[in-house]
Amino acid sequence: MITRAIIATVFALSVSTAALAADPARTGETAKGPALTNAQGMTLYTFDKDSDGKSVCNGPCAANWPPFAADADAQASGSYTVVIRDDGSRQWAYQGRPLYTWTKDAKPGDITGDGVLNGAWRIAQP
């Protein structure tokens, strides 16, 4: 009886640890080299005006630059952290920099957002 309980506990812990260990972003190739991507392969970007793990891209900005959303139960993992947005939603950040996609990228590998707003938007690179 105790052995089954121990095995069940160890299994549950190993499954939850494996879930926490998975990085939320992937690495894909672009014309400018490797870039972080979402699960669909779309390039992720950082915004130079963000600071201290805080996103300043809200409202119309976030409509054009959708935040890389984190689930309510998402936990930090390695270089990835979760930031709380002004509207209370959660967003993934890489090395403290909130991550976004760009609505004008049409397919995986596109990097049309790199350099927008006088260079303030940049490809997120691993």
From TrEMBL:
Residues 1-21 form the signal peptide. The keyword Isomerase does not apply. It holds the Pfam family Lipoprotein_15. GO terms for biological process: alkane catabolic process. InterPro entries: Lipoprotein_repeat, UCP029720. It comes from the Bacteria. Keywords: Signal. This is ATP-binding protein. It comes from Brevundimonas mediterranea.
